[in-house]
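Item description
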Amino acid sequence: KKLALWPTGYRSIDGKLPLYSKNIVLWAARQKAGKSRIVKNVVRKMMSNTPALKLMWFHFEMDKYEMMSLDVAIETGIPTEVVKMKSRMPTDQEYLEIMHCEELFKNENVQLYGGSMDMPAIGREIESDADENTIVVIDNLGLVRSTPGISKGNDHDDHVASELVDLRDKTGALIMPIHHLSKAVDHY
């Protein structure tokens, strides 16, 4: 058994998934299955257990407010819909816990990248900031814009895959793309 160098504390993950530098780990599941939430939780655990880690999260489906709400929910155990004040207002105690997270997040080495990007733009960001202590999450791989001059479909997929391998080799980062299963795959 090979132990994870960046442990999560979850026995079902540590030693079974290559969650350490110079790797690519693809997370795929049905739409709305909670992929982002699971990966966010795993990444938070790795960063908590290995303080030298930094995170680059490319979020193409959620805005920064949703990303922060997810962090607060994971950290406090308060439901995301309460943090976002959609289902109900937080209680006084929950509000204090939410406000405490602001101080906690100030000390974290996390960079969020929103909006639509193509592989050259993503690559520039990763090459400029990532190293062997970096976790790069691309959420959602299917929303990476087509690079000009490269047609969509298999050519685009091949280009994205080869660029991710190249970025992994150049920087030494752990790259964790998140992707939806296609409807055909989901059917089976």
User: Anything to note?
Assistant: The chain has a mean pLDDT of 89. The helical segments are 35-49, 64-76, 80-83, 92-106, 119-129, 154-171, 183-187.
